[in-house]
Amino acid sequence: MILLEDIDPQLRSPTMNYLFARKTYLQWPGPDVHKQKHFWRALKKSLKPPRRVRYREDDPDFLLDMPDLNSGQM
Question: Are 23 and 72 within 8 A, CB to CB?
Fold first, then answer.
């Protein structure tokens, strides 16, 4: 999710509250140019496809999505 502004929790739907509690989201930082640069870097990083690695040697078609350990998210 990307937020352009804060949304009052009282106005959010139950689904949106669930997403806020469970998913990572980015929020537009406003006019601060330095924070905007950080926002764009974080967005670009979050849009990269997941890394995939072979998980079992006995099944070469079995792949497992691996988290990006540099992202701080697991």
Answer: no
CA separation for the pair 6, 16 (Å, rounded): 13
Spatial separation of the C-alpha atoms in residues 9 and 34, rounded to whole Å: 28
Nearest to 70 by CA among 37, 34, 45, 53: 45
Q: Which domain holds residue 15?
A: 2-49
C-alpha–C-alpha distance, residues 28 and 49, integer Å: 22
The rounded distance, in Å, linking the Cα atoms of 61 and 47 is: 25
Q: Which helix (H) or strand (E) holds 14?
A: helix 14-22
pTM value is 0.49
Asked if the structure places residue 16 within a domain, the reply is yes
pLDDT digits (tens, 9 = 90+) for 30-57: 999 999 999 999 888 888 776 665 556 6
Which phi and psi (to 5°) does residue 58 adopt?
-75, -15
